[in-house]
Design a protein that fits this description.
Blueprint: E1 2-4, E2 9-16, E3 21-29, E4 34-40, E5 48-54, E6 58-65, E7 68-76, E8 81-86, E9 92-97, E10 102-109, E11 112-118
Antiparallel strand pairs: 1-2, 2-3, 4-5, 5-6, 6-7, 8-9, 9-10, 10-11
């Protein structure tokens, strides 16, 4: 499970079967509120992904491999980023910003996310 909010923090939680509770697995601090956080499980990919959207106009993509989380990519936007959504396989990320424009990014190579759809011209 992944959570974020106006305290400028995003967290990934893991269920501990022994204590039957959630425990914090990873925590990221930001300089602005986290508007959205979205988790892509490893359906088709050999890793899990998390994307966070922040009021400081950034999308951060994190990858979980070999038991640890690392930042894969940071995408800059001109406006605060409000919402993100993964495709079913986790290779596409749709991102919407304050201007109601949706951009879609695709991982072309490992950790290289490229803009493939820009709805600002529609």
């Amino acid at each position: 499970m992944a959570t974020g909010g106006c305290k400028n923090i995003a967290k990934v939680w893991e269920y501990d079967e022994l204590s039957e509770r959630l425990k914090e697995e990873m925590k990221w601090n930001y300089s602005a509120a986290v508007r959205d956080i979205t988790f892509a499980g490893s359906s088709g990919l050999p890793y899990n992904l998390v994307a966070t959207c922040t009021d400081n106009c950034e999308v951060h993509i994190y990858k979980h491999t070999e038991g640890k989380w690392t930042q894969s990519t940071r995408i800059k936007s001109k406006l605060p980023v409000w919402k993100a959504s993964w495709s079913l396989l986790g290779n596409l990320l749709a991102v919407s910003a304050a201007n109601n424009v949706v951009n879609v990014y695709e991982e072309k190579e490992i950790d290289n996310w490229e803009l493939v759809v820009d709805t600002s011209n529609d």
